[in-house]
Amino acid sequence: MFPSSLPTPRTPSSMEAPPLRWGILGAGWIADQFVAALRAHTRQVPYAVGSRSADSASAAAARFGAERVHTGYEALVSDPGVDVVYIATPHNFHLPHALLAIEAGKHVLIEKPVGLDADEARVIDAAARAAGVFCMEAMWTLFLPKFDVIRQLLAEGVLGEVRTVLADMGESFDPSHRILDERLAGGPLLDLGTYPTTLAHWVLGMPESVMASGTPASNGINGQLGALLSWPQSLAALHCTILGESPTTATISGTQAVLELDRHFYRPGGFTLRDGAGRVLRWEEPAVDHVGLHFEAAEVARRSSAGETGSPLRPFADTIGTLEVMDRIRASARITFDAALAARC
Prior knowledge:
This protein is an alpha/beta fold and about 350 residues long. The protein is about 35% helix and about 25% strand.
């Protein structure tokens, strides 16, 4: 039955989440976005910063308004004032840095994807379970109010049986950007492709078959990737590229209705629900980009303060499952992260 109105998001106020003291492990672009969101929309405290160099750590602490500065990551995770560590280093260092924090008894929020593959995610999961600490992937999309509305529409069967997921994400980058560095697991899959893959896996579960193909960037790494995922009665067509701008939209199509997400589908913004009878409902919200990172931080604060070790909005089993799909995409497209693994050693 097509609804008369869209559901109300059930997302709690981020400002009401219990304040924790955060240790920021890594001082790059995403850490800046994360801390800016904390400071603007929560009571969370960017308490300490750890970086490989004293200059980098001090500069980041000044930007973040952080009280403590640590040269080296071991000092950060050992700081008794830190309640939770946000892992914001390059992809191929997520595993060792997450384990470092977990072994120090800290709760962790790990930038997506949590590792280079599903095996690395399983190692992190096992370590967190053994230590009894909270551990979650920073897949911020699934914590946005917009996606709670979508979650309710799917649960209520408004779309009918979902038959198709289409999702795309593409950007152009300066040649010096880390996304083109094979030593840092460069290419579109981990940075961009994780969003379309997460959407398809979230909506349809584990596919029966995966086929993928890619084209190279000018330096030889994978530059563009297309994947076709199939289920007995459903398909997902996914695309990601670092070779140029692309629509960066998504569609979830069912037997009763279709949901069309606006450009930058993974961020705050609008979507349209429509059916074959011409009925239309529209979700509108400010497209505030990465300011929306505060929702995932508030979820960490609420759950960990309550003694929980994960979130039902992004269970770690789902994180592992998405990486399993990405592993199958890489295998089909013959993409390896050998250089990234070597750089970590």
